[in-house]
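hiii, so i know i said id send this last week but things got crazy w the move. better late than never?? heres the sequnce for the chain we talked about at the cafe, plus the structure i predicted for it. fair warning i was half asleep when i ran it
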Amino acid sequence: MTYSKMEVKTSLLDNMIGVGDMVLLEPLSEDSFLENLKKRFDHNEIYTYIGSVVISLNPYRSLPIYTPDKVEEYRNRNFYELSPHIYALADEAYRSLRDQDKDQCILITGESGAGKTEASKLVMSYVAAVCGKGQEVNKVKEQLLQSNPVLEAFGNAKTVRNDNSSRFGKYMDIEFDFKGDPLGGVISNYLLEKSRVVKQPRGERNFHIFYQLLSGASDDMLKKLKLERDFSKYNYLSLDSATVSGLDDAANFRTVRNAMQIVGFMEDEMQSVLELVAAVLKLGNLDFKPESRCNGMDESRVKDKNDLKEMCELLGIEQSVLERAFSYRTVEAKMEKVSTTLNVAQAYYARDALAKNLYSRLFSWLVTRINESIRAQAKTRHKVMGVLDIYGFEIFEDNSFEQFIINYCNEKLQQIFIELTLREEQEEYVREGIEWTNIEYFNNAVICDLIENNQNGILAMLDEECLRPGTVTDETFLDKLNTICAEHQHFESRLNKNSKFLNDHSLPHNCFRIQHYAGKVLYRVEGFVDKNNDLLYRDLSQAMYKANHSLIKQLFPEGNPAKVNLKRPPTAGFQFRASVGTLMGNLQTKNPNYIRCIKPNDKKAAHIFTDSLVRHQVRYLGLMENVRVRRAGYAFRQAYEPCLERYKMLCKNTWPHWKGPARQGVEVLMTDLQVPAEEFAYGRSKIFIRNPRTLFFLEEKRKQCLEDLATLIQKIYRGWKCRSHFLLLKKSEIVVAAWYRRYAVRLLSKLSSILPPELKYQKKCEEAVTTIAAFWHGTQARRELRKLKEEARNKHAVSVIWAGWQGTKARRELRRLKEEARRKHAVAVIWAYWQGLKVRREYRKFFRANAGRKIYNFTIQRIMQKYFLGLKSNLPSMSPIDKSWPARPYSFLEGVHAELRRIFHLWRCKKYRSQFTEEKKAVYEEKLEASELFKDKKALYPSSVSQTFKGDYLEMVKNPKYQKLSSAIDEKILLADVVNKINRANGKSSPRLFLLTKKSVILADQKTGQVKTSLPLPDLSSVSTSTQSDGFFALKLKEGSSSAVKGDFLLSSDHLIEIVTKLHRISSLAADREKLNVDISDEFLVQFKQDKVCVKFIQGSPKNGNSVSCKRKNNRLLEVSVPTSP
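okay and structure toks below
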């Protein structure tokens, strides 16, 4: 008996430890939820589903569930087909993106230490493993994966909860082509915890890069950066947790440098980044002392100027400029400037503000620089998979501004999570034709409105308080909240005049409490105003802008004196709210996939499950709410085919094979099992089961049936085994019997030798009779055979004699006919000669005088007649390029023959020209000009000779796609074609529309038709191209012209000969400008902005086949590889 493929697969419901999908948990309560998680965690099952949501518990140890074999096991499998795993979610998202063209996003949330970063790495590594292969694809995958170590070094730190805690939110869009191969990505970062740069809580470290630099850099590098290895030398580095067990900072530094090289950082860029990191460390060592002035005011001064000097040398800043920025502050208002001194406290504030801004801007620059390397180059639409790794909900003993905006972001994520989950459920019900019933759930939109409302929201009031004149403190901000939010049901404060909270001693006077979806959180207002302002004194910005360092000017653009902006920069809260709004809009356009990460204990130890800690996370992640939403309608649904395959053995009508449609089979099955009709519903492609008890009933019946089937299989196997043994014995018995009979015959032959004489004589007589009969029968047969052979020979002889006689008669008749024909011919010849003789005798007297001349003239006339008739029948074609001509028959006609050939060619050319229109004449004039420009100079020219110069290859007037662009151009378009514009940075190409008129060259976007560049022809100085068979050409612009700001243009076209010819012809016909110079060389210079780049053409087989490839070798060389001509 054989079983189908579906029967041998491991299902989500097979061999379950606990319940693999919380939707099926029965009964559903918080205690049973935790008990199921703990049971699975104790058996190393760290993944559990809530529908399509994955719950992930951090095991704090390595598990053998991420091997290449596991990747192949989950590849192209149904989500519920195997046991819960993060690979199942990654595969479902990737296949939906590749096969259904749906953009995806994977939202990973959880508190610090729950394993969010590792989860995002696992998702990316799985996608990298299952997508396509190839040199370019592997390079993109490697760059995407290697961006993680760089961002972790600069954005992660050791905390009390996690040795590698992400202190920023990260969202990465991975872009794929139509085949599902990665093309690149874009990273967005949110809310770097820059306060960690200047101060770390006890037991925690600063960002990894500081310790990695001091531990892993060589002595020469540290000397160049003016650093020492001793951590205790730097005030910004905490010493109690400087070294972490299990973290090798030196090895990680080498890993980071290697990752930066793979991503695409140049050596000077890496050096510049490390110089800024060293400058931050030096900045933390600056101490200030008070110095009294004559007006009685205290002014801050730098105590030890050695660190200041070294930092200024690293950044290329004059020491006096930066020292003054730490002592004075300039305030500008309209046309007035007021300079005030800074006291010691203000100087320390300015130092820390500069350190935080310098590091956070460096981090943002790193993200931007990584994006430049990994971003997809093609401008066409891509499929996108987003991966969001962001802080989870945070409830600490002391919650401040950072926790407030983090929890605000999680409120928005919870809101979109509930909305998208409900929408997904509703869309599936509608798609399957199931009646949708409204689901009651807690809508946290009221909490989001409390925080983000533009008028009365907490963030709006915080911004308003920061921007208003007068004395602004955290207490005035709290007073404003108490006034405006007093009646809000989710806002609590001791000072909001609400009697319910006046005697609540758990609520301090300088705090307020918000009832989030995950629970109540107490926020201390101290520092809210200062952290929201995030001010950096303008004097420090301007001092930074004066630096000679290559990066500093980019990081502090507001310090440019020529672009002074008196407006206050946007607050931190405003910027974060805008970022969250953009993120939510991005997520709304994608199909969501959720991973909820949970930390099982605070000790970062394996095999420990702390109930209270996990219960707290289950509550603030809203997992119970999620289960209730999924179970509000039908708890379980499954396609008809796998459902029938799984349960078909429960009904005699469907077992072992059902030949009809799968839905009918499921209907027969459910009717036979007598499942109540209200417990399930039939969709278009799935069956929906309302209660988990029904599903468990089916599973129990299936388990019993499988046991019965196992017994049946055992019975059949044992019967087959016994039957096989019996057949083997039977076969053996036959063999033994055969051998025995053989033995018996031999035995009888031996016994015959001892028989009596009478029996021997009788036996001999019988043998003699048999022999005589055989000989007699043989004699009779031979006689009959001889008789038949004699008759056949006689018949053959008669046939041969008759054929010979007929042949003899035919040959005699042939000889007679031939003889008669010869006689008739002889008579005719004799008669002809006789007639000739008589004629010659009669007319001889008339030819004696002029016979010679007449015969000569007659001969010449006949020769000429024959010559002209032969010439007429052998004339060449009417094509002017046909050089063939009949051979000369007689030497005396040599002059005539040559003259006739010349006259015929002239006449043929005249006839050919008479057919030309004016447009065709112009085309042939262009062809002639192309010949003068390129013949014997460029290898591409011979292949262009047979090609017609069409001009408008895009049919601008007829094509509705380009009608708007065509109407926007007043002049007549002489040439319209698609060319490739070569990117100056990396040598890659992007398509552009190339339009040529009598006055200008226009480059437009191929997709939108928007004009990108318009170049007046008088601004062109020359056109450069190579001698080889490529289509590259450079439009060089005159120095000082208005079009030369961005530099020259390097283009590639399949119609290069036509484009350059038309450009040259237009300039030749124009009387008011110089003729365009055409330079044909395998090396020429092109001006790209401020740099002159050499374009060099080499021969060889490029990596991408037989096409031409272009690659930027360095800042001064662009190399074009042209395939060798066959």
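btw The chain has 34 helices and 31 strands. thought thatd interest u
miss u guys!!
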